[in-house]
Design a protein that fits this description.
It is a single chain. The protein contains 28 helices and 18 strands. By secondary structure, the chain is α/β, with parallel strands linked by helices. A 9-stranded mixed β-sheet has the order 3-2-1-6-7-9-8-10-13, with helices on both faces. β15 and β16 form a beta hairpin. The termini are far apart.
Length: about 800
Amino acid sequence: MAIKKSELYSSLWASCDLLRGGMDASQYKDYVLVLLFIKYISDKYAGQKYAPITIPAGASFRDLVALKGKPDIGDLINKKITGPLAAANKLADMPDFNDTNKLGSGPEMVKRLSDLVAVFENPALDFSKNRADGDDILGDAYEYLMRHFATESGKSKGQFYTPAEVSRIIAAVIGIGNTKTSHDTTVYDPTCGSGSLLLKVGDMAHTKVTLYGQEKDSATSGLARMNMILHDNPTALIAQGNTLTDPKFLDGAALKTFDFVVANPPFSDKRWSTGLDPLHDPYARFDTFGAPPAKQGDYAYLLHIIRSLKSKGKGACILPHGVLFRGNAEAEIRKNLIRHGYIKGIIGLPANLFYGTGIPACIIVIDKENARTREGIFMVDASQGFIKDGPKNRLREQDIHRIVDVFNRQDESDPRYACMASPAEIEKNDYNLNLSRYIESSATEDTQDIEGHLRGGIPFADVKAMADYWAVCPALKQALFKSLRTGYVELAVDKAAIKTTIYQHPQFAGFIKDMDAYFAKWRKQVTKNFKALEPGFHPKQLIVDIADGLLKYYEDKPLIHAYDVYQHLMDYWAETMQDDAYLVAADGWVAKPYRIIEKDKKGKEKDKGWTCDLLPKPLIVARHFAKQQATLDAKLTELEAISNQIAELEEDQSGEDLALSGFDKITVAAVKERIREVENDPESVDELAVLRAWSRLNGLESQLKKKVKDLDAELDKLAYNRYAKLSVDDIKTLVIEDKWLARIATDLQSELDRVSQNLTRRIGELVERYATPLPTLTARMAELQAKVDAHLAKMEAA
């Protein structure tokens, strides 16, 4: 059976537990990723003729396993495994597996490294069979590890990784997916870090393209090289060195030019010009637009990108917001860039997205091809769309999709989100590109109506502002409000009845019914698509097709936010559907339960029951054994009631001098012993009654527990045996309809619930705001003041 993505991730992350404590995350990542690399290339290329990766004799993963337990394991890994691999494949700066400061010494190092190697011996981690065309399972696992390493490395050491969500946006907005590409198409990242951004852009192309990257840090450039291989791009060219002072990709004496260039350079690099004279740059990067200030390197990287683009090239660069508005030399560069028409657009991102800094950044999108006909700069302010994820913010799937959709369509329908800034408007703002000058994205303040506060009544303007609801349910407005005076209304129902009035109104009920029917139509169609899936399909393409189709399906529906619906599906995909899809793609519609065997500290195995990943037991039970489950549930309810009675009796009779107060622990044996002691004592009648009541309830509880256990075992056996009788069609029905689509339907219902909840909440806010007019408040205050004065007078008289 194929390994689930979630299990692969957890297995690899578990390897990190073996190293934590001895070193920083930015260091132990190197050890884990190198072992992952060795395992992968050994599985995929060992024994292959003309393989793009050379595995020297004695340097495979099998040879690495043979070193487990050896007293000099660290030194042997360096000399026999990583050293030869690095030399054969030009991989610099492999981590030192014999570093006692990080890995411990003697037996501690031997155990730590042996255990670490053992993690990758898991038979399920067979990477030779774990890659379907177009579905880079291992590459995704690497991405997962890099994100976690960056999170744990902190601000000072997390710059090696560009968040995948931002990389995906860049890949989509530079247009490589809409371009006819070939192996001759070139993509370049002058500050490639571990290569994640470069790979995302390459993945967006319809064919294999040629990747180039340069990275200043030698260890990180080694990671990038391994990353290329792990992502099946072994021919990518990764160079090590300072891009600004020593660019490695040249065409004679000039910079080599590329079709696409992307970068996430270090923000505001204060040492960018060390070793470089900007006024006499040998590559003429600053001749046309001006030299950046010596202590602010953002534009140096952007100008390097522009110089590295072909005449029809496209590019994008992640930079801090300061490049949009800072003055002096940077203002002159910005003006020249705008006048040349090279800036196609600007996308403002949320703060705290990146691992090296918490400041907000933006994506500058460059387009040389259409520079002469540029009619403005398209701006997107996406700073408000994100979710908190631990110490960082993270873009959701819906945020990514919306940014890409709006930018690529040049959609100005929401002026609070995006606009096209004309050359005249930009010039009027003195070439300041600060997004807030062009897009007012902050939330609109809720206005307070003075007359409403003075005289009472809800301003009709506030009611009118809920026009989206009244467009769908026009009569609902009359059902909820009645006229008070010109321009003001009051609630026509009791405040407590607002929610009920909305839910029960014929027009709102009709809206819900229409939405249910609309979903049912989509559900019917997508069920056919799901049931047509055969082993070997591409899960990544499946979710793109299904999710994009769902987004478009709900795009024009009232009151429902299509991107929220889309997000529900993507969340469920990440949570469950993705693993299911990979299982089906690898094994087909097969549902075989398996035993869960766990080992205790002594290595003894213990059977913890059984499970089935694709088709969990509750689905089998709900479909085929509902009556048995109902019987079990009824007995569980009885058991809970009896247990509650026992608990209440013990609580009521545990006080001082009460029937159950003398027990250290109330047990069957202790109660029986006490009954024998007092059953003939006429003064203990009440106590005896309590003890016998407890004993009777305890007996009933024991009987019910046994009955529940027997029923549960019987149901468990029925469910387990049912799997062998399931046909492929049965499995498809259970997985697709009872598992996948049932969950999606539940999530969609939550969106419909949100519609009514938001309307209820808003009306409640308005009612509460204007419920008590100022004269009433004044009169009440005067009344209370009079009472206080009267009390003070009495106190003085006394």
